[in-house]
Amino acid sequence: MKLRLSHAVMYIRDLEAMVAFYTDILGFEISDRGPMDPNNPEGVQLVFMTQVGSDHHQLAFANVRPDDAPSTTLDHLAFRVEALEDVKEMAERLQADGRATQIGAVNHGNAWSVYFQDPEGNRLEVFCDSPFHVKQPQIDGWDFAMSEKELLEKTKEHYGPQPDFQPMDEYRAAQHRKHEN
Question: Domain locations in the chain?
Answer without folding.
Answer: 1-69, 71-181
